[in-house]
Amino acid sequence: SQTIHQWPATLVQPVGSPLSLECTVEGTSNPNLYWYRQAAGRGLQLLFYSVGIGQISSEVPQNLSASRPQDRQFILSSKKLLLSDSGFYLCAWVTGGFAYGYTFGSGTRLTVV
Amino acid sequence: AQSVTQPDIHITVSEGASLELRCNYSYGATPYLFWYVQSPGQGLQLLLKYFSGDTLVQGIKGFEAEFKRSQSSFNLRKPSVHWSDAAEYFCAVVPQTGANNLFFGTGTRLTVIP
Predict the structure, then answer these.
(1) Residue A34: beta bridge partners?
(2) Nearest residue of A to residue B93 by CA position?
(3) Is some CB atom of chain A closer than 8 A to the CB atom of B27?
(4) Residue B100: which region, alpha, beta or left (left: phi > 0; alpha: psi -120 to 50)?
(5) Does the N-terminal or the C-terminal CB of chain B have fewer CB atoms within 10 Å?
(6) A-contacting residues in B 79-108 (Cβ below 8 Å)
(7) Residues ≥6 apart with Cβ < 8 Å to A32
């Protein structure tokens, strides 16, 4: 079956510290992968998407970066976190077009203190 | 500018009452349309989607949505709300041009009172 794993579920990090969030997909190949952020009181903002290994597109300029070292692995990183990076981060995937909608992970709640 | 608008930030309904959540979009061509639900602290679950054809779409959990091209709207409805429907609801679109990425509205938080 097709599943998406996201970890950690909760993270508290000090300002200026690095960040690494990981997302992996199982049961599918060559998916499109996405990182979204949901800040308090705001909707879901698309941060990055990837259509293949090493292919990353950014939707908005920010303090974050993304990488796709393997077909089913998508990593969100930061060298130095800002307070404004706090939020709920969601990974999503879609394959074979979007006829079945995007599938989302359970998310990571990041609090920068 | 291209956008998805959910004009209601928060809606409160009584259990058993009917529900309608509004969604309007602004795109040159009608995008592909979706409704997602997010329970507290959880990821998103797809309720229903519209690509073409019958403008009344049935989804899971008793939800339906109606596409109205003349109003650029895709409103979500449920005839009788249950307490378990309390959640955040997001309208989303995939524009017909571009990279097939999914863009969300700001969401509507639904509170259900007994």
Answers:
(1) A49, A92
(2) A101
(3) no
(4) left
(5) N
(6) 90, 92, 94, 99-107
(7) A49, A50, A51, A93, A94, A95, B100
Kindly state the tokens that stand for A39: 């800040």
Per-residue pLDDT of chain A (113 residues; tens, 9 = 90+): 778 899 899 999 999 999 999 999 998 888 899 999 988 767 889 999 999 999 999 988 788 999 999 999 999 999 999 999 999 999 999 876 666 678 899 999 999 99
If one counts every other C-beta atom within 10 angstroms of the C-beta of residue A64, the result is: 21
Q: How far is residue A64's CA from residue A79's CA, in Å, rounded to a whole number?
A: 8
C-alpha–C-alpha distance, residues A2 and B68, integer Å: 34
Residue A33 parent element (H or E): strand A32-38
